[in-house]
Design goal:
Helix content: 25-40%
Shape: globular
Number of strands: 17
Mean pLDDT: 89
Low-confidence stretches: none
CATH superfamily of the largest domain: tm_1862 like domain
CATH topology of the largest domain: pyruvate-formate lyase- activating enzyme
Order of helices and strands: EHEHEHHEHEEHEHEHEHEHHEHEHEEEEE
Radius of gyration: 22 Å
Distance between the termini: 52 Å
CATH architecture of the largest domain: Alpha-Beta Horseshoe
Strand content: 15-25%
Number of helices: 13
Number of domains: 3
Largest sheet: 6 strands, parallel
CATH class of the largest domain: Alpha Beta
Amino acid sequence: MRPSVHFITLGCPKNEVDTEKMRAAVVAGGFELATDIEDAGVAILNTCGFIQDAVEESIAELLDLAEWRDERAGRRLIMAGCMVSRYGDDLATELSEVDGFLPVANEASIAMLLADLTSTELADPAPAASRLDSGPSAYLQIADGCHRACAYCTIPSIRGPYRSRPLAEIVAEAELLVSLGAREIVLIGQDISAYGRDLEDAHGLLDVISAVAAIQDVHWIRLMYVQPDGVTPRLLETMAAEPKVCNYLDMPLQHSTPSVLRAMRRSGSAQEFLALLTTIRKTVPDVVLRTTVIAGFPGETSADAQELTDFITAADFDYVGVFPYSPEDGTEAASMDDIPPEHIRLARAQAVRDAADEAGEARSAARIGQTLEVLSEGLDADGVPVGRWRGQAPDVDGIVTLDRDVPAGTFVDVRITETLGYDLEGEVLE
């Protein structure tokens, strides 16, 4: 008898997509999925290994799962994902609690690993793995890996070089997600603006946008992880002209001073970024902007830190993800001189975060009285009706609390009556 399988996913949306595909492969192999871990015979932890905090979170979750495993004979525990790819064989030596390891590159073989660990046979023939289900919003990964060599980043060593998916494959998956109920398609990758650079044909991100927009029941298309050098006039014109594309751009800048950016193996300056933001806002009216920055990078001076804080104030972003620098084994930055002490890194990150919150929460409060189109996500864990408007990406930008229940996947007009930080509250209009 095949045991049922329960998944736990940590980390970014790309990991969520990986888990969805593994779930489909597990079902294709003849295994059942368990919603409650207590009903499962196998737990699969899809880990994040990007920074030390994520590694520590993965280990803590793994130790809790090890206790679950040991409570009943025959249970199995599998560790998958980025942390396995990053640390490889060292994990097998250090983590005897784990029955099987699966790096990102081998996740398609999850059903075979399950069969080996549980002494069962796969369904024959096993249908091709795909996606099983979708909520009102779905992530669609158009590329994996990274072609950049940022000094602080472990992604190239974890996920490999940049690899674009064929356009036909992307469209087929988008159509499947829509058939399963998705009305918002979120395009993701390490840098979606680089899509197609490794393909023999001439397809690029604009072709992806056009093809997905042509799918009848797609209502919103959201662009996540667009590097600043990929924000071209043609991309902005497409965003402004295509009504299905959300006026929303997630553009990681990482810092604002040229010296720190050069040390990061990146380019730009506060002046260049402010000019780019002006162009974006001029071309795409009412655009909502998100970025991420790192405070306390090696060699960052107090003057650099103040410039970053001043830049965040001047840029007036809607959302900013702020991270204190974390030295990561195997990266160039980890061996650099002049790494600020941890308490300095934390303090600088908090100063930037305070500046970002002051601007972002003010922009959020300015939406009181506006009527926004909201995609209902149904009831949250507490039974409260919630949704998101075009200016809120899933999981990271807050929610809109509704005054009455609206079926998930439904679009409604909502008049905003109150805000709490980045969250909005509103009345559903008839």
